[in-house]
């Protein structure tokens, strides 16, 4: 915190990369409501998930161990880009004329461009260990699809990606990158699956959604013995793998002799937010520290801020388990905003649970505010952020301006989850003035409630 300190980057040596993941389930004051079978409505056992996931990941999904060792082959690939830098946003601080100290953890240094490889590498490894030869997945923005395609290339697994149609059209080079890594890519909804064909029959111009793409990928895995499914967010084990981010940030802030008053992340399914925040939330739950923790979601898909907390299906065709989460309904198709990775109808059960318990907060800025934040960030810090990450920046700027107004010098830490080099069309549209804000209509919330499974009506 020394005032004369001019440090910008806090860099950890590879030898200080975390060797275990942090499992917040060990520190929860109230256990997480269990996932339920989509047909029977009964709590799921490990065997129910076996057609979709390798047993090692299923065991992580239900584990209550605080620390889970990162296998050496996973650490070996992590070392290609980890530890990622923690950067003091001195340029942004100056532009905002704020007394706040702003730090960001930069996950765009991974070869695929975001935090997503942190779990893709682990998932590919565990699948390979159990003899799986093919993986299917969905992708919204294309960051997750790129990450899994890359990880599959490293571990010699075939990869099929269902990419949400609107993103597929907006970002052809993301599809190209996945193909360079060796993956097969379909726009979703597609004619490849029953789920996709059913949607296209009703709406041939469907822009797609993560819920639909998940249904397609799950269907392929469930109907092929040699194929398993891989999810890029939402599930406990995915959030677990991301906790290398927050653990590193803690060590780096120690180098800076600082500690965050506010921790911020954007939330699509909740994985990068959790990756940064959970080690801090854990310290808070154990009574060792205190801070505010803020999730930032788009106003066009306001799951945490306007959805009910209820059991709902994870996907549109209701093939995936039901989980208790904040949700806008599994059939909700959000407006085609550019932050494609934030267009998910639900939210990670762990993130939902922590919001319900009052341990975290949530805000939902509009698209134009987030792009203004991203452009200001690029002009002051140089990095061009992913449209998803712009939400975290907008949250950090709001906090920094509050500090200015209140005349307090707080430390703000946010996750810059990825770069936006494949998102130039979004920035061109923004600069041309052709983007607009989408209000989420109240009737849609009512429709979402009406479409929830009956179990949630008993529960909520
Ligand atoms: C760069 C980036 N940030 C954030 C997200 C949102 O996902 P999550 O909430 O799981 O981190 C995505 C999803 O695709 C993404 O690509």
**Helix percentage:** 40-55%
Which percent band covers the strand fraction? 5-15%
Which residues sit in consecutive blocks of at least 5 with pLDDT less than 50? none
Task: Tell me the total number of β-strands.
Answer: 15
Query: What hetero molecules are bound to the protein chains?
Result: pyridoxal-5'-phosphate
**Number of helices, counting only DSSP H or I runs of 4 residues or more:** 20
The N- and C-terminal alpha carbons lie at a distance of 46 Å
| Order of adjacent strands in the largest pleated sheet | 1-4-5-15-10-11-14
Average pLDDT score: 94
Major sheet details: 7 strands, mixed
Structural class: alpha/beta
Rg over C-alpha atoms, rounded to the nearest angstrom: 20 Å
Shape: globular
Could you describe the 3D structure shown?
- With 460 residues, the chain is of the alpha/beta class.
- It has helices at residues 46-49, 55-62, 72-78, 90-96, 117-129, 143-155, 165-170, 172-180, 194-202, 210-222, 236-241, 244-255, 271-285, 303-306, 349-356, 367-381, 387-406, 424-431, 442-450, 454-459; strands at residues 9-10, 20-22, 67-69, 86-88, 101-106, 134-139, 158-164, 184-188, 227-229, 262-266, 292-296, 309-313, 322-326, 361-363, 411-416.
- A seven-stranded mixed sheet has the order 1-4-5-15-10-11-14, with helices on both faces. Strands 8-7-6-9 form a four-stranded parallel sheet, sandwiched between helices. Strands 2-3 form a two-stranded antiparallel sheet.
- β6, α6 (143-155) and β7 (158-164) form a beta-alpha-beta unit.
- The model has no long low-confidence stretch (mean pLDDT 94).
- The structure holds pyridoxal-5'-phosphate (PLP).
């Amino acid at each position: 915190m020394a005032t004369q300190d001019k440090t910008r980057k806090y860099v950890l040596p590879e030898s200080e990369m975390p060797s275990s993941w942090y499992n917040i389930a060990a520190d929860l004051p109230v256990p997480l409501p269990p996932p339920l079978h989509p047909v029977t409505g009964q709590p799921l056992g490990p065997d129910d998930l076996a057609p979709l996931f390798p047993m090692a990941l299923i065991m992580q999904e239900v584990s209550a161990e605080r620390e889970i060792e990162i296998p050496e082959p996973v650490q070996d690939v992590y070392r290609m880009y980890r530890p990622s830098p923690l950067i003091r946003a001195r340029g942004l601080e100056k532009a905002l004329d704020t007394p706040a100290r702003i730090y960001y953890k930069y996950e765009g240094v991974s070869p695929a461009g975001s935090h997503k490889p942190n779990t893709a590498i682990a998932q590919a490894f565990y699948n390979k260990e159990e003899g799986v030869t093919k993986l299917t997945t969905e992708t919204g923005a294309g960051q997750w699809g790129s990450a899994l395609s890359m990880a599959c290339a490293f571990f010699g697994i075939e990869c099929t990606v269902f990419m949400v149609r609107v993103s597929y059209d907006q970002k052809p080079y993301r599809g190209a990158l996945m193909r360079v890594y060796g993956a097969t890519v379909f726009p979703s909804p597609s004619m490849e699956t029953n789920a996709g064909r059913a949607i296209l029959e009703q709406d041939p111009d469907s822009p797609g959604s993560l819920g639909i793409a998940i249904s397609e990928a799950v269907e392929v895995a469930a109907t092929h013995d040699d194929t398993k499914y891989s999810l890029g967010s939402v599930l406990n084990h995915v959030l677990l793998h991301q906790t290398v981010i927050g653990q590193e940030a803690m060590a780096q802030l120690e180098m800076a002799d600082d500690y965050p008053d506010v921790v911020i992340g954007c939330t699509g399914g909740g994985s990068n937010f959790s990756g940064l925040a959970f080690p801090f939330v854990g310290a808070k739950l154990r009574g060792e520290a205190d801070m505010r923790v803020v999730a930032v979601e788009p106003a066009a898909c306001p799951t945490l801020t306007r959805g009910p907390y209820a059991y709902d299906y994870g996907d549109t065709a209701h093939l995936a388990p039901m989980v208790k989460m904040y949700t806008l309904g599994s059939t909700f198709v959000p407006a085609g905003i550019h932050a494609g990775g934030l267009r998910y109808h639900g939210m990670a059960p762990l993130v939902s649970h922590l919001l319900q318990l009052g341990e975290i907060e949530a805000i939902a800025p509009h698209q134009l505010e987030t792009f203004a934040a991203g452009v200001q960030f690029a002009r002051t810090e140089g990095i061009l952020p992913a449209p998803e990450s712009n939400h975290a920046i907008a949250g950090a700027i709001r906090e920094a301006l509050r500090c200015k107004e209140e005349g307090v010098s707080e430390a703000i830490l946010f996750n810059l989850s990825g770069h936006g080099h494949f998102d130039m069309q979004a920035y061109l549209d923004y600069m041309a003035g052709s983007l607009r804000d989408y209000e989420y209509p109240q009737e849609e919330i009512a429709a979402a409630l009406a479409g929830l499974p009956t179990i949630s009506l008993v529960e909520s």
